[in-house]
C-alpha cells in the first residue's frame, strides 16, 4: 500500500486518519499493559479503549503483541525507498537520519506512552525477544537498501552496509530511551540529531557536560 501524500509532500487526510488510528491502538495497548500486564490485555480491550472494533485492530496489526512493538511495515518500506532514491550527494547517514526522523515525528507528542512502553517491555521478556526478532528482520532489509545505494552486492553486502544499518537502528533505539529518561520539554528531534552527529563524527568523545 502506498503512502498517499498531497503535492506538497504532506500526508493526505486518509493517511493521517490511518496513522491516528494506529497510534490510538498502540497507545491503548501500552497504557493497558502498564496497568494490567501485557499478558492480561486482550485485543478486545485494546480495541474498546481505542474506540474501534477488534476487526479494525487486525487491519493494523497481525497479532496482539504487534501493538506493543509499534512496528509498521509501511514505515520500513518508505525508509528503504528514501535510502535508494535520495540524491547521491547526500551521505547515507544523512539520508537515514532525515528519513527516520520524518517517520518518528509523532514520538515527540507521546513522551508518556514511550516511557510506559519501556516499562512494559521490562516486565514482559517475551516482548523484548519478539521485538528483537522484528528489528533484526528490518535491519536486514535496510542493509540491502544501503548496499544498493552504495553499489555493493545486495545478496552479499559485506561488513560496511551491515554496520551502517546496525548503528543507525541502534541510534534510534538509544535516542528514544535517552529521551524517555529526560523531562518532556526536551525536544526529541534534538536528541535524535545529536545521536547521528556522534555517528558522523566517528563517535569521537565530546567534552564532558557539567551536571
Shape designation: globular
Largest sheet: none
* The CATH architecture of the largest domain: Orthogonal Bundle
Averaged pLDDT, please?
A: 88
How many E strands? 0
**SS element count, helices:** 10
The first-to-last residue Cα distance is 48 Å
Strand pairing plus helix content: what structural class? Answer: mainly alpha
Query: If you consult CATH, what is the topology of the largest domain?
Result: Tetracycline Repressor, domain 2
The run of helices and strands is HHHHHHHHHH
Number of domains: 2
Rg, nearest Å? 18 Å
Report the helical percentage.
55-70%
> What CATH first level of the largest domain would be assigned?
Mainly Alpha
Question: Can you walk me through this structure?
Answer:
This protein has 211 residues and is mainly α. The protein folds into 2 domains: 1-70, Tetracycline Repressor, domain 2 (Orthogonal Bundle), CATH 1.10.357.10; 71-203, Orthogonal Bundle (Tetracycline Repressor, domain 2), CATH 1.10.357.10. It contains 10 helices and no strands. The chain has helices spanning 13-36, 43-50, 54-60, 66-69, 73-85, 92-103, 111-123, 125-150, 159-180, 188-200. α1 crosses α2 (43-50), α5 packs antiparallel against α6 and α7 (111-123) packs across α9. The longest helix has 26 residues, at 125-150. The radius of gyration is 18 Å and the shape is globular. The N and C termini lie far apart (48 Å). Residues 1-10 have low confidence and may be disordered.
